[in-house]
Design a protein that fits this description.
1 helix; 4-stranded antiparallel β-sheet; single chain; 8-stranded mixed β-sheet; 197 residues; 42% strand
């Protein structure tokens, strides 16, 4: 009976040793050699119903995004409103077909920076809307439409960007260059002129 027990204990020790050596020395190399996915956000449509409106009027924004690269864990289309202090009744989502519901970011909310997750973060300096799908597969397309009512006359600014996560390359965000926002991420800048009555 003791010989059988010794054999079982030896088999367990050999198995654990093999598992330890395999997991410490071989698995990390095989994981690192796997090709990292490279999502590639593309905004196929960004349209504004008006470029010039009267104060008190609204305009519509329609944005369609696609992933031209590898599947992303999450891909985001962000629409920022640096002239507003709050989204309140000023920005309304009229339609969307993303997998998840878009969410509103208000001034002071904790947001990620440098195309990363929230391990590096900053407080939001202006309100925005983030529409996203998790996951966002290759060649999938989603859209969002908004109605916006500026709160004062003058130049009304809108920032638009799209980011794929994991952010593994310069292809994982759009635009690739231009104006940097407070998150240290590139944005496309659009203007609507709001005329006094």
């Amino acid at each position: 009976m003791k010989l059988k027990t010794v054999g079982i204990v030896c088999a367990i020790i050999v198995s654990l040793t093999f598992y330890f050596v395999f997991s410490v020395y071989f698995l990390p190399d095989s994981y690192q050699s796997l090709k990292k996915p490279i999502p590639e956000p593309y905004l196929s449509k960004i349209s504004f119903s008006e470029s010039d409106i009267q104060y008190g009027s609204s305009f519509d924004i329609n944005i369609t995004g696609t992933n031209l690269g590898d599947a992303s864990d999450i891909q985001i289309i962000s629409i920022g409103f640096p002239n507003l202090t709050s989204l309140d009744d000023r920005v309304k989502i009229t339609s969307y077909d993303f997998r998840q519901s878009p969410f509103f970011i208000e001034i002071g909310d904790d947001v990620g920076i440098n195309y990363g997750d929230t391990s590096e973060s900053i407080l939001a300096q202006y309100p925005s809307i983030e529409a996203y799908s998790r996951p966002w597969k290759s060649n999938e397309t989603y859209q969002i439409s908004l109605s916006v009512t500026p709160d004062k006359p003058g130049k009304f600014v809108v920032f638009v960007k799209s980011v794929g996560l994991p952010h593994t390359s310069e292809k994982s965000h759009l635009p690739k260059d231009g104006f940097l926002d407070y998150q240290n991420e590139f944005v496309k800048v659009y203007n609507v002129f709001v005329n006094t009555p």
